[in-house]
Amino acid sequence: MENLRINEKIKQNLLTGAKWLKFLIVLACVIMVLYFILAIFSCFFPNNSTGLSGLALAFIYLLVIALYIYPLKKSFELVRNIRSSMNNGDQDSLDQAAENFCSILKYTGILTILSIIFSIIFIIIMLIVTATVLA
What we know:
This protein has 135 residues and is an all-alpha fold.
């Protein structure tokens, strides 16, 4: 594997991918700020008289923000390492970029598996509640 080479086409594709990833990072940060603002406002404008729904919605927004922090941090590091490795020929940066890429995919995979599990549990609970109400 030591004889792998990065030619000009691969270099340009990695740098182009890094530009698009940076755009997506900025977009995700803007969305996170909007979610934070929505979380704050949902606390002050509850959906019912107890205020519980507004707080629950704020919690959901804050949970989404918390789940996005790690992949955004790793994505930013990935962009930085790709640029450094391609512009300076730095092998350590390329190694770190590969590690960050792997971390992002692992995190996303685990989050996807958890989302599927929670979705299945939610569907089962909804079927049980519906069956109980109709019975």
